[in-house]
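INFO  loader      accepted 1 record
INFO  loader      residues=171
INFO  predictor   begin
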Amino acid sequence: MQEQPHKFKEQFFSQIYDEYVDKIYRFIFFKVETELAAQDITSETFTRLWKQIYLNVEINNPSAFLYRTAKNLLVDHYRAKAKRPDDLGDAAILVKDESQNIEKQAMLASDMEEVAKALCQLSDDSRQAVSAYYIEQEPISDIAKSLGKSPNATRVIISRGMKQIRQILEA
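INFO  predictor   done
INFO  writer      dumping C-alpha cells
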C-alpha cells in the first residue's frame, strides 16, 4: 500500500467497519460468555485493523483479516480466562449493571446456551454451514466454496441442520 493521506485511510477503515462490524460482533458473541466480552473483542479486532491500515500494511481481503484476528483474540480470551478461574463472568455483569432486566438476561443466556449445545451435536459440515449462514451471515456461495459443495447442496445442508437443531431443542 502506498503512503496514503490520513483522510483516505479513515475512509477505507470506515467502509470496512460499516460493512463488517455487525458480522464480526455476531461471530464473536456466539463464542463468548458475555455481551461485554463480545464488545471488547470486537473493538480490539477493529483496533488491530486500524493499526495495519495506519502503518500502510496492504490488506487485500479485509474479511479474512477480521475473522482471523477475531479467532486469534478469542483464543487469547479463553487462554486468559483459563488462568483466572475465579472470574465471575455473567454474574458480575448482572450484579454490576442494575439497569438490566436480570430475568430477561438469564433467559437469553440460557436460550443461547441451548442453541450452542444443539449446534455442537451437528456434523462438522452442518455446524459450519449453519453458523456461517445464520451467525456470520455469509452468502451461500462463500459457504459452498468453503465446504467444497455446490450452492444447492449447501442450502440442503443448512436446511437439514436447522431441522436437526429444532428437533434437538424441542426434545
